[in-house]
Design brief:
- The chain is of the alpha/beta class and 538 residues long.
- The chain has 21 helices and 12 strands.
- The chain folds into 3 domains: 257 residues, Rossmann fold (3-Layer(aba) Sandwich); 126 residues; 83 residues, no CATH class.
- The strands form 4 sheets. The chain has a 5-stranded parallel sheet with strand order 9-10-11-6-12, with helices on both faces. A 3-stranded mixed sheet has the order 1-7-8, with helices on one face. Strands 2-5 form a two-stranded antiparallel ribbon.
- A hairpin with a 5-residue loop joins strand 7 and strand 8.
- Helix 3 runs antiparallel to helix 14 and helix 13 crosses helix 14.
- The longest helix has 39 residues.
- The N and C termini lie far apart (71 Å).
- Keywords: Coiled coil.
- This is AAA family ATPase.
- One of its GO terms (molecular function) is ATP hydrolysis activity.
Length: 538
């Protein structure tokens, strides 16, 4: 591609893809900005990347508040409405100290990955790829130099619930997942900047390789699996790895992020499987990132030489040990309250919350949510203090103290996940009870509220003339009429007429010889004394 009109001008801190909603649009045309490093100028794969977020942009991106919250409106809410609002606390995000390092490490890993690869034209190869389950031609592939010892990547390590996965989600939202380049000769080729593979419980390397294929399908918008199916049909781990290698080169994959690595079945996974992953990275120069607990990382890369090849280690839970920062988090979350009276944060409340959360952000949000749920559902007045906080922790998260005491252990991390699931189930049960109570209240109110015109009287009027409508048919027709706003204020005779008109629209039954034929609507009006009724009100 010629340099003329190659670069786009952007304001400082603004991505060249600002016009695109990258959360819903995964595939975008390439737009280039000048590389930060002289040696990277002209590298289409690097210059198509947006610059990483910095300073205030990081703070804004990793913050998410509850904009519609209004304490003054809470007293007017039903119990269910309050509980539904409390559940929105899970959507709140706070900037954490490791976010800045994560932003830099991700961008730097992409630079290193694309810096040590070479683009090759494949005009005569007739290579196609599937996007949105349609064939597309491509003209370039990206090869790594296996003789170059450079490997890119990082590991984000921390306690379960310290905000790693949500941080990854925010991180990648800044980057287009698939960039389509023009080669300057009328051809096109794709670049997949990142793939996120979520490890599943007891997964092995066969499942991880298939997960890479699934991530490629999602990036290209393939509703019907294409690349996941190809990997699944390939027999043997070695052959699966080769298939993955070909996809990485074909689509210029920049980085593969393996999230929740503590869920991998380490007991039945051979050590050489992990070595094969690093061999794959060495051959293709794709960057590898792992996200999970420290215990899982040590099992995955038990030797120092392999651990170093994953790159920088980012500690995601260091903030948990800083009491001053924890006080800041508590003050932020107490901005949202559903208690009967506003609660001031005290040192004793902070101490109790730290005791039952160990400073872990997800645990803090979960315990605080349960505190509000408990207060909303309580049948008597409660006092929000340290004893109440410990009571809530014991009720909703039994055994949490023992698990948090040794959370670095992989087994305890899994136990913590089970405790959280049980707490979520308890909250769901309480919300269901609140829904049922609200519905029972509505039913009682509706049954005691007498309509202006009763069903009994309307049915009696109709039966004096008609004998071929069932009680159910009359009631259904009555309900159709009475629920309309236009029926309000009408007399019993007018309502009866409207119900009859509704009934006469029903499919007609065959009349037997001995049965009196049904009178028409004019006859009914005559009987009801409505010959001159104004039909416009209907």
């Amino acid at each position: 591609m010629e340099k003329k009109n190659y670069y786009v001008e952007c304001e400082e801190g603004v991505s060249q893809y600002e016009a695109y909603d990258l959360t819903s649009q995964t595939v975008v045309p390439a737009r280039y900005v000048k590389a930060k490093i002289k040696e990277d100028e002209g590298n289409m794969y690097i210059e198509a990347l947006p610059y990483p977020r910095e300073n205030k942009d990081i703070y804004r991106a990793y913050s998410r508040s509850f904009a519609s919250y209004d304490y003054d409106s809470i007293k007017k809410m039903t119990k269910l409405e309050k509980m539904l609002q409390v559940s929105m606390l899970k959507e709140i995000r706070f900037p954490l100290p490791f976010h800045s390092e994560l932003e830099f490490s991700f961008y730097n890993a992409l630079l290193i990955s694309y810096r040590h690869r070479k683009r090759c034209s494949v005009y005569d190869k007739n290579i196609n790829y599937m996007a949105e389950n349609r064939d597309n031609e491509m003209t370039s592939v990206l090869y790594g130099d296996s003789s170059d010892a450079t490997n890119a990547g990082f590991s984000l390590i921390g306690y379960s619930g310290c905000g790693k996965s949500s941080a990854i989600s925010t991180l990648v939202s800044h980057y287009p997942q698939v960039i389509i380049h023009e080669d300057g000769d009328g051809g096109y080729f794709p670049q997949i900047t990142y793939l996120v593979v979520n490890c599943i419980a007891n997964s092995n390397f066969s499942a991880l390789y298939e997960g890479i294929g699934d991530a490629i399908d999602k990036a290209f918008g393939n509703a019907q699996p294409v690349y996941a199916l190809e990997i699944k049909k390939t027999m043997g781990l070695g052959n699966k790895a080769e298939k993955v290698r070909s996809f990485i080169e074909l689509f210029g994959v920049g980085i593969i992020i393996f999230d929740e690595i503590q869920l991998i079945d380490f007991q039945h996974t051979k050590e050489n499987s992990f070595d094969s992953l690093l061999t794959l990275a060495n051959r293709t120069k794709v960057a590898i990132a792992v996200v999970g607990t420290e215990d899982a990382r040590d099992k995955m890369f038990h030797e120092l030489r392999t651990a170093r090849r994953v790159g920088t280690m980012i500690n995601g839970n260091r903030y948990c040990e800083n009491r001053e920062f924890f006080e800041y988090l508590v003050s932020q979350i107490f901005e949202y309250q559903w208690f009967k009276e506003p609660i001031e944060v005290t040192d004793k409340i902070i101490d109790a919350l730290y005791d039952v959360t160990k400073g872990i952000i997800d645990q803090l949000v979960s315990i605080y949510s349960c505190m509000n749920i408990e207060a909303i559902t309580a049948r008597k007045k409660i006092e929000i203090n340290a004893d109440f906080i410990h009571h809530v922790a014991d009720k909703y998260y039994p055994g949490i103290q023992d698990v948090l005491g040794s959370i670095e252990c992989n087994a305890d991390a899994l136990e913590l996940e089970n405790i959280r699931k049980n707490a979520d189930a308890r909250i769901s049960k309480l919300m269901d009870e609140a829904k049922q109570e609200q519905e029972m209240k509505k039913i009682k109110e509706n049954s005691t509220a007498k309509p202006d015109v009763s069903l009994h009287n309307v049915a009696s009027n109709i039966r004096t003339i008609y004998d071929d409508y069932t009680d159910n048919q009359i009631e259904e027709a009555y309900n159709k009429v009475i629920r309309k706003a236009s029926s309000s204020g009408k007399s019993e005779k007018e309502i009866t007429r409207l119900v009859v008109e509704t009934l006469q629209k029903l499919p007609k039954k065959r009349v037997t010889k001995n049965k009196m034929s049904k009178p028409d609507i004019q006859h009914m009006r005559s009987v009801l004394g409505l010959e001159n009724a104004d039909d416009s009100n209907s």
